[in-house]
Amino acid sequence: MGYFSHLACPVQTRSGKLGILTCVHCGYARPWSDDEVELVQSIATQLAIALDQAELYERSQSAAAQAQAKAQELKQTLKELQQTQTQLIQTEKMSSLGQLVAGVAHEINNPVNFIYGNIAHTSDYTQTLLNVLRLYQQHYPDPIPAIQAEINRVDLDFIVADLPRMIASMKLGADRICQIILSLRNFSRLDEAEKKPVDIHEGIDSTLLILQHRLKQNAGYPGIQVTKRYGNLPLVECYAGQLNQVFMNIISNAIDALEEEIKGTQKRCVSEVSPMIQIQTEVVCSDRIAIRISDNGPGIPLKHRKRLFDPFFTTKPVGAGTGLGLSISYQIVVERHGGCLTCRSVPGQGAEFVIEIPTQQK
User: Fold this and answer.
1) How many other C-beta atoms are found inside a 10 Å radius of the C-beta of residue 314?
2) Which residues contact 155 (CB under 8 A, 6 or more apart)?
3) What's the rounded Cα separation, in Å, for the pair 236 and 245?
4) pLDDT in tens for each of the 362 residues of the chain?
5) What is the pTM of this model?
6) Domain boundaries, the chain
7) C-beta separation of 339 from 356 below 8 A
8) Which residue, 273, 276, 272, is CA-closest to 225?
9) How many CB atoms lie within 10 A of CB 256?
């Protein structure tokens, strides 16, 4: 059967895509009425708006999916970093740890900047899309059946409510990752080969963050409480990366001792005092500061204290340590910074390491 009358109306989206909505009349030729023309134009307008909305929604979903994929990739990278850090800490290869932390933190910083920078734009785009969608729904509350069916299928109301929450949660995660990277970079300080005035408390906090996985409570492990009593310290001229290695060595040893104590009390099924590490800083005279790191573990016998800073001396099982951690720490504090490193301990009552260094290096 032939077509005798045609009515064509253009359909153009904001992105420039162009289509044609065509109506035909069969049987005989006749002119189209104004009402018919107006109806077809209205349908074409609604169709163009619907296509715009679908395209914008697809872009939003794609941006959110990319951000989520990057976040997942970053999460896996951080997990691998934590595992590698744990291995290095256990073998006391602190110099290698510092290099690794700085390098990985630098590499992680690039995708973090990508994610963090795009999250704000994604949030703005999402709000724009949702505003346009609401405006469309206000002016066209009764969409064509095909659009209504798709709205019902994807549960559009849920997506509209949940998408901003998803983006907000990704922003919180990105903020947390940025804080972790800053702490890792503060810990390594490999970009500061020269002595510079630094905040000692930043180095201690960065070290505690890296060791957090060994401090926090989990199933079958009571955790170790850390108490900080920071004094009003001035900026201290020092090799920040090397001092952070000292903090890592001493705090790691305290954790090792407390973990052994925890295992012993669990085997004996007795309740002991909660494991604790206390860190105190103070100005001891006008030009010197002290950092005291103590624990309430089993303590160190006198015969071991005499050899504590000797190279390769260790009481740990084979493979658990090289015996170089405290020896290297002693060299860093005494030889590199002109300070002193001492240990005080009463068996059964814990141990305290005291680091004293001048605030200005000669």
Assistant:
1) 18
2) none
3) 16
4) 566 677 788 888 777 777 888 888 787 777 888 888 888 888 888 888 888 888 888 888 888 888 888 888 888 877 667 655 544 544 445 555 556 666 677 677 777 777 878 888 888 888 888 888 888 888 888 888 888 888 888 888 888 888 888 888 888 888 777 777 776 666 665 545 678 899 999 999 988 988 888 888 877 778 899 999 999 999 999 988 889 889 988 999 899 889 888 776 655 554 556 899 999 999 998 899 999 999 998 888 777 777 777 766 666 655 555 556 787 888 889 988 999 999 898 888 889 999 999 998 77
5) 0.54
6) 3-186, 193-358
7) yes
8) 276
9) 18
Amino acid letter, 294 = S
Q: What are the beta bridge partners of residue 353?
A: 293, 343
**How far, in Å, CA of 299 to CA of 152, rounded?**
68
Q: If you classify domain 193-358 with CATH, what class do you get?
A: alpha beta
Report how far residue 58's alpha carbon sits from residue 49's, in angstroms, rounded to the nearest whole number: 14
In angstroms, rounded to a whole number, what is the distance separating the alpha carbons of residues 198 and 187?
A: 12
